[in-house]
Amino acid sequence: MSNYRIQGATGEWEVVIGLEVHAQVTSEAKLFSSSSTSFGAEPNTQVSLIDAAMPGMLPVPNQECIRQAVRTGMAINAQINKYSRFDRKNYFYADLPQGYQISQLYHPIVGEGELLIEADEKAGLPEDKVIGIERIHVEQDAGKLMHDQHPTMSYVDLNRCGVALMEIVSRPDMTSPAEAGAYLAKLRSILRYVGSCDGNMDQGSMRADVNVSVRRPGEPFGTRTETKNVNSVRFVMQVVEVEARRQVELIEDGGTVVQETRLFDPTSGTTRSMRSKEDAHDYRYFPDPDLLPVELDDAFLQECKASLPELPDAKRARYVETLGLTAYNARELTAEVETFARFETLLAETAKALGKDEAKLATQVANWSLSVAPGVLKSLGEEADPAHSTAEAQAKILKMQDAGEISGGQAKEIYEIVLKTGRDPEEVADAEGLKQVSDTGAIEAKIDEVLAANQDKVEQYRGGKDKLFGFFVGQTMKATQGKANPQVVNEILKQKLG
Amino acid sequence: MHPRPNTAFSVCRKLSNDDGLRRLRRYARKGGKRRQGAQGFIPNSRLGGHHDTHIRTRSVTDLTELGIKAIREGVKAGDFTAREVAEAFNASVAGAEKLNAFITATPEKALASADAVDADRAAGKALGSMAGVPLGIKDLFATEGVQTSAASHILEGFTPQYESTVSRKLWEAGAGMLGKVNLDQFAMGSSNESSYFGEVVSPWRKQGSDAKLAPGGSSGGSSAAVAARLAPAATGTDTGGSIRQPAAFTGITGIKPTYGRCSRWGIVAFASSLDQAGPMAKDVTDCAIMLEAMAGFDPKDSTSLDMPVPNWEAALSADLKGKKVGIPKEYRMDGLSADVAKAWDDGVQWLKDAGAEVVEISLPHTKYALASYYIIAPAEASSNLARYDGVRYGLRDLPEGANLQDMYAATRAAGFGDEVKRRILIGTYVLSAGFYDAYYNQAQKVRTLIQRDFTNAFEQCDVILAPTAPTAAFALGEKTGDPLEMYMGDVFSVPASLAGLPAMSVPSGLNAEGLPLGLQIIGKPFDEQGVLNAGLALEERAGFTAKPQKWW
């Protein structure tokens, strides 16, 4: 349970949050037509006769969309309904050519499931929490109206019309902005792992309707409002915060929260009423007579199951248990598909280059992937060409470092040059003199010089002032312009100082 | 089906006489056995006659007397050209404006298809099963480049860029299009009086009367066109009886196949779970031929049956030995006219004569069928017709200063006729929150019970015989004041629609006033063959040869 509370004038309030997430199904074609679903095309260039609801046109379900919804359901451990069917949600709007949206009210394809959000103290999540998911159903997206193209008329773009969406409905299990944010981020991560949605929230591929209510601790649910089409994790958190606060202030001022649909304005950071329950449409849902029920057989379900990749929770556990990574590193590496993919490729490449077990290298590669490499990349800014950052090049750097040929600092320097030029890391190390000196003779000579120049300190050390060891290391490194292998320096110093 | 020696067709002046042809038909039907033509008549192909000397002079009316099979065989044999056929029917269409059977005539399309068939024949290519047959196409089927209005103002001027699957299949089989025939607006009606383009007038008249009669509906343009020899056949659609009832009213034959046999793709939707296309033609054989050309799995229609199309024509047989015919006792209800009851009794005798055993069956939920139908069909229609909103195509009524809602209201108020509005209102009401369970859900339950009635009945019989409609054709205007009375006329046709069963109407004879009556055969799912065979047995015994006197 989150300890998030709103401090009102009259006491503490809890917030209760449920999210309805619309996720665009990744598929070439729309839910019931063969039109393309790609983003950013010229208006009305991806519209079939079916999408435009020409007379006599009929929908035919796109099997791939069904498959993606089932796979998504499996990824949240949900009940997959072998029997589901499509219903019509009837209302008039210019972006809805059929005059109804084909959706699933009575028999959704996916039933009860759940999603784990992990503890993250810093993010305000004291412990792991399981959020219930009520259902996932598949439905058509609507088109888009453009009101700014003509002084008195609106234009309609039907490109999005008929694109398949999954509506993922959570239970009202979240009790803080942090939980809502973490839920959405985790859901997005799962969808992207599964490949059922690209998760591009800025392109509208994922958007959330945020249901918020407030109550005194221990009391029944309050009246909720629904803020529509919120399109980022940050905005979802913001909506929860401002909407909960608005409701608390309203109630404390003697008002009542009305059940209504609200809109979020990111510029002002406020929500405003769109329509109240009284103006709500009567959607006259009924089973779509153009479509047969969707019946799934075991072979299909098995195929869906078999096609699922390792999912975030399982991957995170494996990183900790098998690769020995810290919980923090494991979470960071598994959050995004790209991150773990890069990490796993680099780990495999490095293990191959070194002939070592992955588990032995995992921590080193994780540190490199999470902090060293991103740091260098960031510091270079536009000078860096990320295309040069191949797993092969990075593995070569890590190999040289592992062999003691280069220091950590040299590794960064080499990586910088590689990023800028695409040169081979080993060649860079040689040509630029970015190698550690491991030649014991040369190092010994320098150490002798250092010790000779600091006889007094040698005496003090031998007299028991152990801390001075670091001083001798530093002096030696300085004398070798930092190129000496610290390990070798340590060993020789220990010998010489007795 | 037995092999035919030579199915060439020929027409001579002697046969251009209607009487002769009629007699010939009657002769052929006698005894249920097809025979060679005899007694100096030159045989009609449907008799399986051999090619004979023929005289190549004939009048236009000769060819318009012919049905699908006769035209196909005649074109194939070279007795006449497809172009001659098309010209003859084009002329009939042009001369029948008083019937108002056509919304759009497309003589050039009929000629173009005919010329293609003639060219194929000249080139020695194989000809399709409908080669050279020009058709009336109900104006509910989308036809590429030709206005498809659904007999409504809202779709007036709408010209699709696509061809319905059914019409496309017909063109592929070698048929041509005489034009788009009239219908009740959006196929909603039983008299063809709800068309925006005006009522269709039946070519039939009561004896001694010139009152205008209804051709039935909704496929009233189709029925009138075939009955008046404006087309050898026409497409129809049947949602609650819209093929069978107009066929019965006009003395022609029509079959609604099992739901899903014919693709609905490209047919303007009325009630999706009920709509089925089917042929309306002169006789059972022609229906078999044309249905074969229309039917078939279509991946573009999710409710399409993924089953092979049988060769119904080849398997036609009027021999019903070993078959059981069910007579539903609940259909003997109040409001059944005496002449219809008599025709039904005749039908029972004819089927017995064909070798069938007749058994009484029970369809206990019959009395709820109409109520169920008039909830489900409007419910679906209210949603299906939401797309006619003035935004993308068809009529747009945009009053000065109107917003979107105003535009919807104005467009739909102006674009839909009263009957369509009535059904949209009913459908919207029965789907509304608070009424959904009481009406729509309840109606669906009744529908399931009706389906179960038929399933049970078909354990005792192979086909069911019933009247098509409780009365013969009524006068135009007679029922327009009372929609419920109009709906009551669908009482015998609606149950088979709700159950998705194949059903056909075959003319049985004329009533005392000289108007045709129809008998209905209802079959098991997918058993169009059983329906056609029983229909053929009726047809052969009914010997129905009457045709309307030309007054138009």
TrEMBL record, chain A:
A Pfam family it matches: GatB_N
GO MF annotation, one: asparaginyl-tRNA synthase (glutamine-hydrolyzing) activity
Start and end residues of each Asn/Gln amidotransferase domain: 345-497
Matching PANTHER family: GLUTAMYL-TRNA GLN AMIDOTRANSFERASE SUBUNIT B MITOCHONDRIAL AND PROKARYOTIC PET112-RELATED, GLUTAMYL-TRNA(GLN) AMIDOTRANSFERASE SUBUNIT B, MITOCHONDRIAL
Subunit (UniProt): Heterotrimer of A, B and C subunits.
PROSITE patterns the UniProt entry points to: GATB (PS01234)
Catalytic activities: L-glutamyl-tRNA(Gln) + L-glutamine + ATP + H2O = L-glutaminyl-tRNA(Gln) + L-glutamate + ADP + phosphate + H(+); L-aspartyl-tRNA(Asn) + L-glutamine + ATP + H2O = L-asparaginyl-tRNA(Asn) + L-glutamate + ADP + phosphate + 2 H(+)
Gene: gatB
Protein name: Aspartyl/glutamyl-tRNA(Asn/Gln) amidotransferase subunit B
Similarity comment: family membership: Belongs to the GatB/GatE family. GatB subfamily.
Gene Ontology BP annotations: glutaminyl-tRNAGln biosynthesis via transamidation; translation
Protein's job: Allows the formation of correctly charged Asn-tRNA(Asn) or Gln-tRNA(Gln) through the transamidation of misacylated Asp-tRNA(Asn) or Glu-tRNA(Gln) in organisms which lack either or both of asparaginyl-tRNA or glutaminyl-tRNA synthetases. The reaction takes place in the presence of glutamine and ATP through an activated phospho-Asp-tRNA(Asn) or phospho-Glu-tRNA(Gln).
SMART domains referenced in this protein's UniProt entry, alphabetically: GatB_Yqey
Record keywords: ATP-binding, Ligase, Nucleotide-binding, Protein biosynthesis, Transferase
Record EC number: 6.3.5.-
Broadest EC class assigned to this enzyme: ligase
